[in-house]
Amino acid sequence: MKKILLKYMTDFTSLSEEEQLAISECLRIEEYKKGKYLLRQGELSAIKCYFVLTGCVRQFFIDESGKEVTSNFFTEEQAIPIINEQKQNDLSKYSLLCVENCILVVGEVDSEKTMFSKYPQLETMIRKMMEINLGDIQEQFGEFINFSPEERYESILKKRPQLVDRVPQHQLASYLGITPESLSRIKKRKKNKF
After folding, report:
1. Which keywords has UniProt assigned to this entry (predicted)?
2. Residue 184 CB neighbour total at 10 angstroms
């Protein structure tokens, strides 16, 4: 599992192999079972972040009508930021739930600050990863606004095809902003084209 992290440190920093190993030894890696909440909507937001080594985590919220709305899925090699250091007493507006058994790196602000002061390049690496994540989110948001439901589904097939088989259809439909029935019709049309 740590090979994934070492890959990121090699790609985004010029840390020596010795420094990379020292950092990886300090990281907290936790296993979570399918169905485990990392955060619940309405709870005080924890000042933590996660990095997915294996598994899938769903971000969702319950809207005013009581309907679950999926806003993201995080899979291998993706960071799950919970950025609320300025608003520590705010209640979370969403939940994070393990859709599969997961192995995650768990980061906490206090330990991160210590690591950043000891290894400044680590902070640069995290910033670069967050910039990539933000770019991906902006692209997804733009597609959500500008694409038809069928185009959104085609984008998922192109960019994140593993989601189609890994998450329940009703959650994928919610993520695409459509009903499960509409998703079934889109899938059927795609199948009939081939």
Report:
1. Activator
2. 13
Q: Is residue 29 within 8 Å of 53, Cβ to Cβ?
A: yes
CATH class, 2-137 region: mainly beta
What residue ranges do the domains of the chain occupy? 2-137, 147-194
Buried b (16+ CB within 10 A) or exposed e, 109-140: beebeebeeebebbeebbeebeeeeeeeeeeb
**Structure confidence by residue, pLDDT tens digits, 29-65:** 899 999 999 999 988 766 678 889 999 999 999 999 9
Query: How many CB atoms are closer than 10 A to CB 103?
Result: 16
